């Protein structure tokens, strides 16, 4: 009687090392996609899953946006200064098209005011400022009466603000060509108090003209002169930064001033 030999199933532990390695290799090959299905990148033919991950830094993006805004503001200020060239602060009148151009640039700056509550940060307002533009105008008979056509020249206009004393001094400088190039100034002292986060109320206190020779020139029309430059009323501070300030008063006037370092003006 023949005997059938039944071979028991082979266990991995009983498989020769060579067969064991071959079987494991075959199992792995079934798990790995075929080469034809692997997408490769253009750089170094790397498999897709080796593509480097790009991280976006949101903070840097925000900072960049801030820089763009600052540059836009600086550009608007440069455009305003360019528009103000050659108009002598607008005191003796400017063409209507030029006036509209300037006021549009002023409005753009006001809409981007970096100090929305200026009376809460009066340290930004303190110090000496020089007028670069105003809608105050001296035209026609007023200019003739004040001798501001040929005889007397209107020079610089400064404003010194002392926030500790709540005082402001406006200084308007003149030179009289007929008096051996005599130079002098009108000084108007005023006090102010905070009326809102953007507005101050102004009270004129006293005024002087020096030297006496210049006072003699203006004496007849002194009230007219004060009526033009008197700061009495209220002033809305519509824009202020480290170098420029814009304001509007209760008479509808616009003032654009730049910071001036000489406090002895």
TrEMBL record:
Q: Where are the transmembrane segments?
A: none
Q: Which domain of life is it from?
A: Eukaryota
Domain Plastid lipid-associated protein/fibrillin conserved stretches:
75-257
| Compartments reported by the entry | Plastid
Major location (coarse): plastid
Family membership noted in the UniProt record: Belongs to the PAP/fibrillin family.
Q: Write the protein's name.
A: Plastid lipid-associated protein/fibrillin conserved domain-containing protein
The uppermost taxa in this organism's lineage are:
Eukaryota, Viridiplantae, Streptophyta, Embryophyta, Tracheophyta
């Amino acid at each position: 009687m023949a005997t059938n030999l039944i071979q028991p199933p082979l266990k991995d532990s009983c498989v020769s090392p060579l067969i064991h390695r071959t079987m494991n290799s075959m199992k792995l090959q079934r798990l790995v996609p075929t080469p034809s299905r692997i997408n490769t990148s253009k750089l170094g033919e790397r498999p897709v899953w080796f593509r480097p991950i790009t991280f976006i830094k949101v903070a840097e993006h925000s900072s960049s946006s801030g820089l763009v805004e600052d540059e836009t503001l600086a550009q608007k200020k440069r455009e305003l200064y360019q528009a103000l060239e050659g108009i002598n602060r607008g005191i003796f009148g400017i063409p209507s098209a030029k006036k509209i151009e300037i006021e549009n640039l002023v409005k753009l700056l006001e809409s981007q005011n970096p100090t929305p509550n200026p009376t809460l940060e009066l340290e930004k307002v303190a110090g000496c400022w020089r007028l670069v533009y105003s809608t105050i105008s001296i035209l026609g008979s007023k200019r003739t009466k004040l001798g501001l056509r040929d005889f007397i020249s209107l020079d610089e206009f400064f404003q010194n603000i002392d926030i500790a004393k709540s005082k402001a001094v406006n200084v308007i400088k003149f030179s009289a060509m007929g008096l051996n190039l005599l130079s002098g100034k009108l000084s108007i002292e005023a006090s102010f108090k905070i009326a809102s986060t953007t507005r101050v109320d102004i009270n004129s206190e006293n005024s002087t003209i020096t030297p006496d020779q210049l006072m003699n020139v203006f004496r007849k029309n002194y009230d007219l002169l004060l009526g033009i430059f008197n700061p009495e009323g209220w002033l809305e501070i519509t824009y202020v930064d480290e170098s420029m300030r814009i304001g509007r008063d209760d008479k509808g006037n616009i003032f654009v001033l730049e910071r001036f370092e000489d406090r002895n003006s």
